[in-house]
Amino acid sequence: MSKRAVLEVIALDVEDAVAARAGGADRLELVTDMAADGLTPPVATVAAVRAAVDIDVRVMLRLADGFAAGDVERLVRVAEELREAGVDQFVLGFLDADGQVDLAAVEKLAGVLEGCRFTFHRAIDRAADRDALRKQLADLPGLDTYLTAGAAGGVTEGLPVLCAEAGRRGEPGYGQQLLVGGGLTLDHVPDLLAAGIDAFHIGGAARPRGWDGPVSADAVARWRRVLDA
């Protein structure tokens, strides 16, 4: 029997979370301010969402637009506050000015998140050398997923990279799950599934009215049906 593919949906609030869960989402990425590409939501929103749904919730750790860590000590305080509120799954990812992984920032946060699981998000798609980044983070405790489109321009551009990386699963630096998102459409799904990719991330695709409208349970259910077919 084949393993069910993971479907993760971006949620901004309780309404989104409930609709995503009703449509068949397995997990939420909880953020605020999509105009800045997703920042850390308020603790009160996190608590309300976790009380409203019984699926996994990964909370974004990012304080400003872009891929620089910025004020790492403030990030640490935010992470500690979220942990005290019961959060045990996160999303993060930081690069330095040269496009290398900001190892100091990522390792410091990983220490604060000891015992938690987390995703390294699409910063990998802006990295100067994604293979080097993966190898640097290969043994980082808690890192179990890379959210990636395979390229900064999105899945259409990055499809060959995604399929190649899926074929390297098990090699050093390639043990984490590939969670594909960033311009992902249903047309991409057959090739990705054929490559062995089993986790998918949608944001705007779950919102027929765009980011000004809520997640649609029907839109999520359509993705669920395609992934389960």
TrEMBL record:
Q: Which organism is it from?
A: Streptomyces fumanus
Stated family: Belongs to the CutC family.
Name-wise, this protein is Copper homeostasis protein cutC homolog
Q: Which InterPro entries match?
A: CutC-like, CutC-like_dom_sf
A Pfam family that the UniProt record links to this protein = CutC
For this UniProt entry, the molecular function terms from Gene Ontology, in alphabetical order, are:
copper ion binding
User: SUPFAM superfamilies recorded for this chain?
Assistant: CutC-like
Top-level taxon of origin: Bacteria
